[in-house]
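SAMPLE LOG
Freezer: B-3
Tube label: C17
Construct: single chain, 389 aa
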Amino acid sequence: MDSSANRIYAPFFSSAFTWNFALGMTQLQIPLYARELGYSGVEIGSLIALPIVVQMIFNLVGGAWTDRLGGMNVSLVAFVATAAAGTMFAASSSFAGLFAAQIMMIVARAVYWPASWALVSQLPGARGSLMGTLNAITSFGQIAGTVCAGMIIASWGFGAGFWTVAAMGAVSFALGLAFRYAPPSRRKAPLPLLAGYRVLLGRRSIYYGVMCAYLSALPFSLSVSFYPILLIEQGFGSEAAGWLVGMRPLGAIAAGVVLARFVKHADDSSVPLASALAVAASVGLVALFTNPAIIAFFLFGVGLGSGVMTIYFQILVSSLSSDETRGSAMALAGMGWSISHISTPLVMGALADLYGIHAAFYALGAFALLLSLALPPVHRWSLAGGEPR
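STRUCTURE (predicted):
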């Protein structure tokens, strides 16, 4: 990679690392802080899931903004919101305060993902390789953040952890300001907001993309809700839980670095099927064991499967959208992430309260298996539509 390319990529990928470092910290801190305050499984699930309604709205708005303002400009909004969320979490101990802080963090997540995905698809270079690099860097950031969160909680408490989240949001903003790249001029202006989404909703591949996005997001939804709680129930401390939860993004790094080269186009249904089956098996089986090595293996496996699925989903959406609608398409298909984030914590919380957290993981793994087996026929149906893939 030449020096001019490095000048383009370095601020972008650096801001991706620091923002995901903050995100990784929240994955461990938010559910454990709520548990520390004595909230029930349903209350914890509600804290994680109900603000996703806001994410679904801002996700679509963020995608449309990306098409108009550019990916990095929208990412700057996410960085500011992250700094604000960390500050609010540090100052809150009531459910209302935590809920407001969580909404702020949800806004950051909602606008960041379609903006970063759309931007990396427009950078010069091989699309699959760049997307794999972005996913590896974001996963590495989440690992570092999750592990550091466990150590900070053990040494200085939750307040110090949330102030660190705020600081990393500020660092991400500074790095984003240093980014200098203008994508090639668009051949035509973006469609009006509703018109653009109406066109995209007429393409069958979008619905297949939503399914793939849902399955790729399922492990992330568990990481920010009930994976940490499962590990605490299994007898691990917060520091050990941080290391173990960090195995999921480590698997995603392996997917981005090693397997991204094998995900070249959206026509091959074997890649998403194998990835989805790996996710289902890992989710359903992890609660059977208390041995840390075996738990680490399944968390690595779920990260590997979801990492490959994420790259596939990004290539799928890139192939069915133009530069003028890339952000909107990423946001629309990415609604599968929002569906996962709103349903998984609520369902897991209810099942954990009724039957125990282990039974909740078995049930979710069985559901993911059924959804995985539905992918090939839905893929064939999407190809029958005849639209660009």
